[in-house]
Design a protein that fits this description.
It contains five helices and no strands. It has about 150 residues and is mostly helical. The longest helix is centred in the middle third of the chain and has 36 residues. It is elongated and about 70 Å long. About 10% of the residues are buried.
Length: about 150
């Protein structure tokens, strides 16, 4: 069972939460640098996972004579490839977010224009909606059923 410290570390991916300076402007240079660092580390972790998958699939690839063994291996590879596809999409989203930081457009809600908030961005660095707009979007999604 994970300890509280371990769980907290997993939650924030091993970075120190940003400590705001009194009177500091939202999305100042140090804040943007903080999020750039988080996103670049996250992207590196995802890319390393892709490399591990490729090596695993190359090492484990075998032509089993038993159809059940072959099917099990194919299912395992299929699941891994699906996970890597999700990560590939996430890497693309991280790249888009890094571009937003570079363009000084990061940290503002795409829907209403208010600050998304540092803690929300630390929890979900690729967030583009403030918590209120995200909650409304989820409610609408449930009502529509899509």
């Amino acid at each position: 069972m994970p300890t509280k410290a371990k769980a907290k570390n997993d939650l924030n991916r091993g970075f120190e939460p940003y400590k705001e300076v009194k009177g500091e402007e939202y999305m100042s240079d140090p804040m943007r640098a903080h999020f750039t660092n988080i996103l670049e580390k996250w992207k590196l972790e995802l890319m390393q996972e892709v490399d591990r998958t490729v090596h695993h699939m190359q090492d484990e690839a075998a032509n089993f004579p038993d159809p059940a063994d072959r099917a099990s291996q194919e299912e395992e590879f299929s699941l891994e490839l699906r996970a890597r596809d999700r990560e590939r999409k996430l890497i693309k989203k991280i790249d888009q977010t890094l571009q937003l930081i570079e363009d000084n457009d990061y940290g503002w809600c795409d829907s209403c224009g208010v600050e998304i908030g540092i803690r929300r961005l630390e929890a979900r660095p690729t967030a583009t909606l403030c918590i209120d707009c995200k909650t409304l979007a989820e409610i609408k999604e449930k009502q529509i059923g899509s």
